[in-house]
Write a structure and sequence with these properties.
Length: about 130
């Protein structure tokens, strides 16, 4: 989707995305190979630290790392549904769907979901300080 000089390949992109998506893509600069690996640096610490927390989410049988992964996945799918299909869902629906997916994962693979016994304690979002 990017040409050798690092610019967007608009001819190719227009074959795969709806015209209403093009303005969104125009606002995103393409990755410059000279900038190194294409990923946000803040994501590593935040994402991976949450994916390592094995404590149960308060009031559930779901380890935080499983629920967090489900929430991130559902947010990504929601973003794509809004962008590419103009379909949105409420935050409550997204939360219920995330809990449902996490619960199904736990019930279908209990050994891989909790390799060590999780501790029961409150896990919640905290504000950036």
């Amino acid at each position: 989707m990017v040409l050798h000089d690092g610019t967007w390949n608009w001819v190719l992109l227009k074959q795969f995305v709806r015209p209403s998506v093009i303005p969104h893509l125009l606002s995103i600069p393409p990755h410059a190979p000279s900038a190194g690996r294409d990923r946000p640096t803040w994501a590593d610490e935040w994402l991976f630290s949450n994916l390592k927390i094995n404590r149960l989410h308060l009031g559930t049988h779901i380890p935080w790392r499983i629920l967090f992964a489900s929430l991130v996945w559902q947010l990504w799918k929601r973003r794509n549904s809004i962008l590419f299909a103009n379909i949105d869902m409420t935050n409550d629906a997204l939360q219920r769907l995330s809990y449902s997916w996490a619960s199904h994962f736990i019930s279908s693979s209990p050994a891989s979901a909790s390799p060590t016994p999780p501790m029961r304690e409150l896990v919640q979002w905290s504000g950036a300080g």
